[in-house]
Design brief:
81 residues, mainly alpha, 5 helices, globular, binds zinc ion, Anit_sigma_mycothiol_RsrA
């Protein structure tokens, strides 16, 4: 049995390196779209934003991009306290 969250976290490194196929990338983005636990655990704001902006411009739903942007702002706010 594989924890889908664990798998998503593992795949994300390849995702960030641009090593995943379109199919795998879709799996990761769809997981992130539905799993705020994973989305909140990703501690590489710059890379994530870079990937979203540069590599997944066409494959990441606008709604997810906005959600990631909101999450980044939220974490920034918490970190500054
Ligand atoms: Zn997850």
């Amino acid at each position: 049995m594989t924890d889908p969250c664990e798998e998503a976290l593992h795949e994300l490194y390849h995702f960030l390196d641009g090593e995943l196929t379109d199919e795998r990338r879709t799996l990761i983005t769809s997981h992130l779209d539905g799993c705020t636990t994973c989305l909140g655990a990703f501690d590489f704001e710059t890379e994530l934003r870079h990937v979203v902006a540069e590599r997944c411009r066409d494959s990441v739903p606008e709604e997810l991009r906005l959600r990631i942007a909101a999450l980044i702002e939220h974490e920034r706010f918490e970190a500054s306290e």
